[in-house]
Amino acid sequence: MRIIIIGGVAAGTKAAAKAHRVDPNHEIIIYQDEAEVSYSACGLPYVISGVIDDGRKIVIRQPEDFAKEGIKVYTRYRVTSIDNAKQQLRVKNLESNSEELVDYDRLILATGACPIVPNIEGISLEGVLTLRNISDLGRFKTLLTTMHPKKAVIIGAGYIGLELAESFHELNIKTTIIEKATRILPKFDTEMVQPVHDHLLENQVEIILGDGLDKLHGENGRVIAVETESGKMIPADLVVIAIGVKPNVELAKAAGIELGKTGAIAVDSRMETRTPGIFAAGDCCETVNRITGKPIWMPLGDIANLQGRVAGENVAGGNAHFPGVFGTAIFKTFKLTVAITGLSEQAAQEAGFKPVSIVMKGTDRARYYPGRQEYALKLIADRQGGRLLGAQVIGSGNVDKMIDIAATALLGKLTCADMENADLAYSPPFSPVLSTIIVAAGILKSKLV
Amino acid sequence: MRIIIIGGVAAGTKAAAKAHRVDPNHEIIIYQDEAEVSYSACGLPYVISGVIDDGRKIVIRQPEDFAKEGIKVYTRYRVTSIDNAKQQLRVKNLESNSEELVDYDRLILATGACPIVPNIEGISLEGVLTLRNISDLGRFKTLLTTMHPKKAVIIGAGYIGLELAESFHELNIKTTIIEKATRILPKFDTEMVQPVHDHLLENQVEIILGDGLDKLHGENGRVIAVETESGKMIPADLVVIAIGVKPNVELAKAAGIELGKTGAIAVDSRMETRTPGIFAAGDCCETVNRITGKPIWMPLGDIANLQGRVAGENVAGGNAHFPGVFGTAIFKTFKLTVAITGLSEQAAQEAGFKPVSIVMKGTDRARYYPGRQEYALKLIADRQGGRLLGAQVIGSGNVDKMIDIAATALLGKLTCADMENADLAYSPPFSPVLSTIIVAAGILKSKLV
User: I need a surface site. Which of A224, B97, B273, B332 has the fewest CB within 10 A?
Assistant: First the structure.
């Protein structure tokens, strides 16, 4: 059986490896339009800052590594159309521009997502970049080493924007973030976001809220300033468009493969599209929010890996299921770690729950143990029954630990009463005697009906 | 109503605070035979090493702090007997040696535990110590500053023994550990323990296994050597007895309060003893292992706090339940963190499960992100159905995070299949793209029937 996988970054390569492990007799082919496969896009901001000293480090595996397992990887090949009736692809060699038709038995779409780039004046000027893949990284590195930018504007105050603000700070580039919404990080509840905002200001990042990108001004083909919708002019020799990403679904759409409500490819829990025999995984497809049961699009590297594993198993003859996500995410900006899992209080309300919540300060060590750091934990539960619905953790120290405890609690459908008596690991270097999440759950329990 | 609490370290003070919060109209009295109340015994090894620069820091609250809430704390008062029929205590002032009778309406026993000290020749020599409470700390500090010991022997290779080995190393005291069992850390599975053993050796700690303490030799009233059961003589100017603790149950026993199978006071989930109106909490009472359903004695500070909270609520008229423990524990020795939750593979077998397990190396960051550290994770599941039964994590980096994810998974009765698709927080500085526990759960799933 010939399995073809379109896209070779996270979901595609994971699917290939899994399919091969399930049944090494299948022929497995990956078509990837970029020159690199199997890289960690999440590492890109750290390569730009220099924290990761060599961009090649974020490339996990080379085509030769796949070849050893009998997985054929074609880089710089683009699949331009799918004929599902004939089970045939049209594939273009991007180097030679030649095209060929290739038959498949099973297909996995792992076409990923791409940055949303507004069609505005000046968008093609030199110095205007996005950060999504290895080619973008090359453009960044070239710009940084040849032009030595001094003033950057980042359009969009999401994860990538805030990670890049730190990267630019490391490079002594003065940075302004412009965000159309009235606050940064709209997935978080309002009261949790202010400390992040303040922390950015403390690190000399300027933030303009409630204002969008109107046009870009240039000189000799290079960007020199950003003009906002309200008419502000901000000088810039580097502009990053980071207003969000969209799923790459054109190929699927043209082939009549159904999209979901989120605009990404619709799949069942086996990662099969509505077109039998064609699977999808990663940033190009949607999934289910395990709390609301509603479709959600969650284009993140770890989810892509989980979905790729399931699609790879099923395409090779197995029967695995991907149950959906809780929307867990984490990122770092300067000294703050910012993390979320489940629903925010606002999202819980919108989903029809009657949430109660608590925000409390926590610490990662006993209060007498040196070097301890603080964070704020918000815990959200359903007023009826007390089931935990979500958590947000922002600060220093073990933010990642707290959010993963909360994410595991959501997975176990635990209530405040359950968490109040959790048996978590205590010793002075690792935790206060009662973990913050235990204390928070106890107080939250008292707010239930 | 007058509530009397016997013991004022962890469970006792927590119970008092909780009872006061539930109903501030009750009269609440704590009798504590030590001079200090409300301190963190878990911090003691770090005061000895100097990591915590002042022993007073591990005292959380003073009697005056309790007095502000109307809780009366009598330090250096010992309850010598309980007359349950009369609801009356005999209380001795340890300073004046005077005794009085005090009536109570409700009683909480929080008498704690004390080190097991073998009745052998030389046990009373100067330089032979235990480490359990603030008085012990005083003796340690005096000895360290006046005698400047050079060679220590620690009897017992449990948590306290291994924590102290590190403390002594910090103080340039050459240390030998003697353990009667044939390996250190018997609660862990054998294959997990060897790296800890090796790490101790690397740090110049000598370890003698399968040999017990026979007698102590002295000169001018001071210890100079340890003689083992096999006849080994080990020079020592400091000997620490750390072979374990036992619950302080004499008072309860004399009053006819029933003990459990473990030898600690038997309680129900409300923390009430078999004698109605008398509650117990903390190291003096037993609890339930939530996986086996069997009684277990788990004398740890965090559990004492959880139980104290429940006893305090119930004694004041509430109705809280403590559901038991998973046996979660963590400690640090030199550069290694050692943690466990649930059953070891051996304990699972003994409890009648048919466990399967996996040991795998894990890391706390993306493999290309600088500063990452490694640990070994052992995950144990029930072959039938795949419910997770336990985890052990040993190494550097986020050991505490891994064990708390596992402990929360046990709380949620999660299976390998559940954990395989956990939605944990990923970003390169905080985790590999798939958390080690996710990968381990996936592999373990393939070993199930």
Answer: B97
